[in-house]
Amino acid sequence: MSEWFRGKLGEILELKRGYDLPARLRISGKIPVISSGGFSDYHADSKVKGPGVVTGRYGTIGKVFFVNEEYWPLNTTLYVKNFKGNHPKFIYYFLQQIDFQSCSDKAAVPGLNRNHLHLLDSKIPPLPEQKAIAHILGTLDEKIELNRQLNQTLEAMAQALFKSWFVDFDPVMDNALAAGNIMPDELEAIAEKRKLVADSKKLISTNPALATKFPSSFEYNEVLGKWIPEGWEDVSFPEIVDFLEGPGIRNWQYTEEEDGIKFINIRCIKDGDLTLETANKLTREEALGKYKHFQLEEDDIVISTSGTLGRFSFVRKEHLPLSLNTSVIRFREIKGISTKYYIYGYCNTDLQYELETRASGSVQKNFGPMHLKQISLLHPRMEVLLEHEKISYQLFEKRKLNLQNIDTLTQLRDRLLPELISGRVRVKEIEEWTEQKLAMVAENRANYNSKS
């Protein structure tokens, strides 16, 4: 490592404070505005040419962001004004290994002084190795992002299916129009719009056998206050969802034992999945004894009930064993009455409205079993729910595989990043190994696609 440069951080790069831009002065545009927490808005003008690297100066400390295009860094950030000949993407990864908290003042709201940061002892490799490191870590990040984008598409498809069948009632409307049934006055405008939809996008044309499982007329439901498909009914939430609120686990019950069982909190539910790296643990004896009733299972749905209401996620087998905790409620299907995919779709639509309108608390909103028992919701025929389950299963299994790939790639990146940046591992030592890991991820996807 004799060829590595050793010196002060200020000799490697120059940091500069961002610029004020109050919300009232922002003009709609395509320029990303970066705050200490990351992307926050768009503006019509830029302050810095890309590519750029930004970190939090005030408020949120320690996060580092890479921006490809021109951008506007806010005054709560520090951005790299001068890379001094170093590779921007490498600097992005390099700064992630800086202990920014050690340079933060002790005020109630932490802040950074760039002059203090410039004095930090640092070392970096020559430019060719910087590029090689950035390529390896960047490739992993690109594959992680690709899997996330694929999941966004799958989730949008699942939401569109749920909305079409159980919110807009498209198959029922098409059946009613084909049968020449009289439409209620309140649905006339919707019916006219539906007539304009191409037959190639209607279930009655693409899958006539499946379309026959849907009614061909509507009836008014007093409880739900709207027209619903004939033969479908309103039910109370407990009739179709098995739900359980988590217990109140206290700080003194936490354990550091290696075989302890993690328990979920509302911060673990993020971006439609569970992040358990910082979850606390109970002793195995207590979790499987006193709290056995609160053990989660694969495909349970967990939802936040305090603070940010309504964040929800499926529980994956990779998360288990896992215990329920306070401020989180578990939803589970009732066999023969409901399906997990119908419950998931409901969580994404009408339940969000119910939570906001029924939640109590003046300072921090929260809801619980008492509120859920007050909810009435639509219960379609079981044969329709089972058909919805067949289609949804394919979408969510692909989503699950993508999440597994994200886990694998993230763990690989997080393992390599400190080793490569510090020089403890050199690029030539791990290039072949990294390619093998990436090939395994690709093979898993290919195997799944061949089976589906």
UniProtKB/TrEMBL annotation:
Q: Does the keyword DNA-binding apply?
A: yes
The reply on keyword DNA-binding is yes
Please give a single GO biological process term from the UniProt record.
DNA restriction-modification system
Q: Which GO terms describe its molecular function?
A: DNA binding
Q: Which UniProt keywords apply?
A: DNA-binding, Restriction system
Q: Which Gene3D superfamilies match?
A: DNA methylase specificity domains (3.90.220.20)
Q: Where is the Type I restriction modification DNA specificity domain?
A: 1-155, 229-383
Q: Name the family.
A: Belongs to the type-I restriction system S methylase family.
Entry's PANTHER family? TYPE I RESTRICTION ENZYME HINDI SPECIFICITY SUBUNIT, TYPE-1 RESTRICTION ENZYME ECOKI SPECIFICITY PROTEIN
What protein name does the entry list? Type I restriction enzyme S subunit
